[in-house]
Amino acid sequence: MEHNNNRFHGYLTEQMNSWLNKISGISALNKAFASFPLTSELKPVLDEISVEFSKLDKLIQLIENMNKDVSFDGILNYIYSTFSEFIPYSHIGIALLKDNGRVLEGSYGRSDEALESLPKKLVGLRAEVSETSLVGIVRDGTPRVINDLYSYTQHKDAQYNRILIEAGIKSSITLPLKVNEKPIGIIFFSNTNKDVYREEHIEFLKTLSNSIAISLNKNIFIDEMLYSTLLALTKMAEARDEDTGDHLERMKEYSVRITEFLIEDNMYEEEITIAFLKGIERFSPMHDIGKVGVKDGVLLKPGRLTDDEFGEMKKHVIYGVDVLKTAEKNIAKQKYSMFKMGIEIVEGHHEKWNGTGYPYRKAGTDIPLSARIVAIADVLDALTSKRPYKDAYNFEESMNYIINEKGRHFDPYIIESLIKHKKEMKILYDSFQNNEPSE
Question: N or C: which end of the chain has fewer CB within 10 A?
Fold first, then answer.
């Protein structure tokens, strides 16, 4: 795997150095044109040339950032704040291909302050490529310009179209994201005004989208390699206890849904970013990774634990934190950081709002929000699942227990949101029951 990683980095470095060599000297030329004696006839031409040099200058800076191993979020922030003087956009959105290219999933986004909630609403949204108007972009790599989004989508009832229209988006350019001619997703540049995009915008955005694709692919490769290693360890812990079944997948879905409810209710707005939502999806399944260190006699005991055995079980939190901190320490040497939320969730998902939990008896908002969300999802799935020492409770019984623990075990504000969205949570719960194999 290390050999493949080195080859991958070598390819990226070769590609980016090639670009830099091709356009080296641009900054010097730009300075030369700036000092060129102007006449009224030459000024418009030289102004246009200066703009083009400015674009290339900023592309060079973008490529240099990619060479410095800046995170993809950092790259996207740089793009959003830098290129708006050349391209009129209010929102940039990225959807990646999933499920062997059959599905597009909203994955990243940046917006103006007036559209602050738009990226959160689009991230995680999935659509079958074959059922969208994006097939040509993905399959043929043909960019698409829409200068009147309302008219274009008037007879198209896709959810992502409704979200864009409701947010006030009126026009967009959509381009493919490709690496080695293989599509990995699409990128949208959108504006709140009509009729703002022209053909010349497409040519510049093609160059920009190529840079984005390479940066994105590099980050996905590294993140997925690290994440899949830790997830495999988590699944190893789960596999020791057959009664947990698909607990990790259900946990993830419950945690993500609760987070989406908070977004809809405008709660914890400053904390719940796109990165937070993606972190919940990634790291909620790792909450019990430390169970790999718990003895079989305790983990698999078919009855209630003694006080000493429960003390041993509690150690899974410390074991899990040690695993993720070791991983974080090692990747920090490579200028990456990705397990911070995972550590928070593992360490805090057994703490209680009133300070009676473990391991540190933290209380209230001293417990990280991610852990407070996962704690509710964990208990909901534990109650509605069969265990060696109990039968499964139904959804109503489980929800009543959780609601009664409002302000004691659980964050009261999250519980208020959960009560408001109880029917939606029941739909998710029912979907898990319907997917279970019949006995």
Answer: C
